């Protein structure tokens, strides 16, 4: 079967799925472009010429050249991230090799990245990750003020992530479905919905849920589960908490706590991955995995989605502080070694992100 024939047999994505992909790409592009903007601003501050600052990759759609700095500002075809190309950074060789080439060159100029002191180059390198950390904190503050923080006592009537093979999953429930009635009785609160499910183990329930404004009836038999000395029923989903808006003054310390928690979570994940790659390697996902997770988060609402955006921003910042890349965004952790010892890096450029493993009760 040819590639064209295979492509024609694949189902086309729905308008809802396409919308989610567009929102995800826009979010990811903003995170990456602002990361590159951090490099750009500090590079220009230190007198380094930036040849290109681009939004997206691929063929250039729009370009404007600054008559003052000579920088080419580009908007490219593929809206996936962006880049900041500085003079003196070829993106092919490591820092030590570029330094040797610069020192051996007879046409060295002061606006070359390699002409700057180690402290100046380091400040340019760390500017991108710092921009990501600032952005993550700002996102968390905005999310708390605009959409609220999760309550630990009140829950919605919406369906959260479903356990594969659970009664709810087999009945066709999806993340974000809003249960409006059970057996013809309106479910006004999340507690009322859960209490009805828990009190009906093995009993068929007529569930009415709303998805994209369309109501659907389905019969679900809660799975009997032993809890202590009693038996309860479960559909097999995680509850979604209510989100309550807070004032900007309350949002700042809350966002700080969430930010530090995300940093700790990411560092713990990296430590587990480095120490036990066989055990934790399967939990690492790339852009495709992130898009799938982002699609689920969009169904949960804007507050969880912005928290995911903040988490990805933190991950992007931390990954660029680790010795995984070779060019300007090379990790400061190995920056000095590469500058002075001429160390070589054979690691390929790769960005991966670990999403949190949420452990909650099933309902």
Record keyword descriptors for this entry.
45% helix, two-stranded antiparallel ribbon, alpha+beta, 4-stranded antiparallel beta sheet, single chain, 363 residues, disordered N terminus
In short:
By secondary structure, the chain is an alpha+beta fold. It has 11 helices and 12 strands. The strands form 5 sheets. A 4-stranded antiparallel beta sheet has the order 5-4-6-7, with helices on one face. The protein has a two-stranded antiparallel sheet with strand order 1-2.
Strand content: 15-25%
| CATH hierarchy: architecture of the domain at 154-243 | Roll
Query: How would a crystallographer describe the biggest sheet?
Result: 4 strands, antiparallel
What is the name of the CATH topology of the domain at 154-243?
A: Pdz3 Domain
Arithmetic mean pLDDT: 80
Share of residues in helices: 40-55%
Strands of the largest sheet, in order across it? 5-4-6-7
CATH hierarchy class name of the domain at 154-243: Mainly Beta
Q: SSE order in H/E notation?
A: HHEEHHEHEEHEEEEEHHEHHHE
CATH fourth-tier homologous superfamily of the domain at 154-243 = PDZ domain
């Amino acid at each position: 079967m040819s590639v064209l024939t295979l492509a024609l047999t694949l189902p086309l994505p729905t308008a809802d799925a396409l919308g989610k992909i567009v929102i995800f790409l826009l979010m990811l592009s903003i995170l990456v472009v602002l990361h590159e903007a951090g490099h750009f601003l500090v590079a220009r501050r230190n007198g380094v010429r930036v040849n290109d600052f681009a939004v997206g990759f691929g063929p250039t759609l729009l370009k404007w050249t600054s008559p003052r700095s000579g920088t080419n500002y580009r908007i490219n075809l593929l809206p996936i991230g962006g880049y900041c190309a500085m003079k003196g950074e070829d993106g092919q060789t490591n820092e030590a090799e570029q330094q040797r080439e610069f020192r051996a060159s007879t046409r060295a100029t002061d606006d070359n990245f390699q002409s700057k002191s180690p402290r100046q180059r380091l400040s340019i390198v760390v500017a991108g990750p710092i921009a990501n950390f600032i952005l993550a904190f700002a996102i968390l503050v905005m999310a708390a003020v605009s959409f609220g923080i999760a309550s630990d006592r009140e829950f919605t009537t919406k369906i959260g992530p479903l356990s594969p093979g659970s009664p709810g999953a087999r009945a066709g429930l999806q993340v974000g479905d809003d249960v409006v009635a059970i057996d013809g009785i309106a479910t006004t609160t999340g507690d009322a919905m859960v209490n009805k499910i828990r009190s009906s183990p093995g009993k068929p329930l007529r569930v009415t849920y709303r998805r994209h404004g369309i109501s659907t009836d389905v019969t679900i038999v809660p799975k009997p589960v032993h809890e202590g000395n009693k038996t309860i029923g479960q559909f097999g989903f995680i509850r979604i908490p209510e989100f309550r808006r807070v004032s900007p003054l309350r949002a700042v310390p809350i966002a700080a706590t969430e930010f530090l928690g995300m940093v700790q979570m990411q560092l713990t994940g990296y430590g587990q991955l480095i120490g036990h790659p066989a055990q934790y390697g399967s939990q690492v996902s790339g852009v495709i995995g992130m898009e799938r997770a982002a699609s689920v988060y969009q169904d949960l609402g804007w507050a969880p989605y912005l928290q995911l955006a903040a988490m990805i921003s933190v991950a992007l910042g931390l990954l660029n502080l680790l010795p995984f890349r070779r060019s300007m965004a090379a990790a400061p952790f190995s920056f000095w070694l590469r500058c002075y010892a001429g160390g070589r890096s054979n690691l390929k450029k790769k960005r991966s992100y670990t999403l949190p493993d949420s452990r909650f009760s099933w309902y």
